[in-house]
Input
Amino acid sequence: MPKAEQHSDEELVEGCLKNSRYEQEMLYRKYFAGMMRMCMRYTHDSDLAMEIVNMGFLRVFKKLNTFSFSGSLEGWIRRVIFHSLSDHFQKNSRPVHFLDLEDRDAPTRDNALDRLYLEDILKLADMLPDATREVFYLYAIEGYSHVEIAKMINISVGTSKWHLSNARQRLKQLIRIHYNHAG
Output
């Protein structure tokens, strides 16, 4: 049987859209390991991570017709599965604690961050400048390193780190503005 990596993303998407079980399996095999690693970073439970990945891939297959090849298929799949991860935490009333928005040495006085869910943070992240938002998503959501991000979007590692720091600062400000007065 041919390996999943031997199929182009275009071939896999085309086959999946035709409801080909073979291409669906190849797409799943090609991206499973990366999605599992992403979910494990947040759940630390292989059974739960597997459940979230599988639910996420169901979403991927249902929504594949909306993928437009304007970005990478892997990035799109990662976002869809990340939304499944977010939904799991939100459904189980577990606030987001895995995105480090606070300075390690200076804890915030209020508890706004404790009340935030991933969906709230993603809405706030959409308010960031384009380059800063892109680095934030690639680093915090998709799990790329600064070296990988620098190569992907043709910037220096230092610039990638600056954008991430800038995203954290701006997100903290946005959290104070939008959520400190609630609850």
Observations:
- Residues 21-43 form the longest helix (23 residues).
- The chain is about 70% helix and 0% strand.
- Residues 94-98, 102-112 have pLDDT under 50 and may be disordered.
